[in-house]
Amino acid sequence: MPILATAVVLLGACQKPAPQPEAAQPAQQAPAAATPEAPAPAEKPASADTATPTLKIATTDGRQYDLAEHRGKWVVVNFWATWCKPCLKEMPDLSALDTMREHVEVIGLAYEEIEPADMQAFLKKHPVAYPIAIVDTYSPPADFDTPRGLPMTYLIGPDGKIADKFLGPVTAHDIESAIAKAGGPAAAPAKPGEKS
């Protein structure tokens, strides 16, 4: 499938319609089709090789998350939503990756308008091992592109720079392959007491 067609399919797969300003009319979208098995790397920002994003946000468990405090690890920043089926499908894999890999951490950024109590109820039905924060859709984190579709995942290297970016669902294997490609360990040992 050509790259452009794959991108159109991924964008249409999990997007909530948003009101458009009167001056800009939405373009015709191709009908959504099945999501491909492997995620398509999204366009990297022009400064992706040097971008060192900041992220300070309150999580649903009442704690503060500061991306800068996680230097030295690979951090997966995953934009998602409760209504996005591909997002829900990747959550168990991301949770397992966070639990089983000492060098990898995940943070989920719920990109939707949802009350904290409703998110807590959702997370009781769909528990994950990593922290979740609710993002203000009108004021998303400035150092990350506004998601054009969900899920949208960034891989942040131990140096704090963006190592890779994916539009569409990812698996633990996709993340570990991207880590290896960026110079990280190809296969990491599991955390003490767990299988790899």
Describe the structure.
The chain is an alpha/beta fold. It has one domain (39-181): Glutaredoxin (3-Layer(aba) Sandwich). It is 24% helix and 19% strand. The chain contains four helices and eight strands. It has helices at 3-13, 85-100, 116-125, 172-181, and strands at residues 40-41, 56-58, 64-66, 74-80, 104-111, 132-135, 152-156, 162-167. A six-stranded mixed sheet has the order 1-8-7-4-5-6, sandwiched between helices. Strands 2-3 form a two-stranded antiparallel ribbon. The longest helix is centred in the middle third of the chain and has 16 residues, at 85-100. It is globular. The relative contact order is 0.21. Residues 1-12, 17-37 and 41-50 have low confidence and may be disordered. Its main location: other.
Number of helices: 4
CATH fold-level label: Glutaredoxin
Globular, elongated, flat, extended or rod-shaped: what is the shape? globular
Mean pLDDT across all residues, rounded?
80
**Number of distinct beta strands:** 8
Order of helices and strands: HEEEEHEHEEEH
Radius of gyration (CA) equals 17 Å
Strand content: 15-25%
Outline the low-pLDDT stretches: 1-12, 17-37, 41-50
CATH homologous superfamily grouping: Glutaredoxin
Q: Count the domains.
A: 1
The separation of the N and C termini measures 34 Å
Protein name: Thiol-disulfide isomerase/thioredoxin
Subcellular location: Cell envelope
Organism: Lysobacter niastensis
GO molecular function, one term: isomerase activity
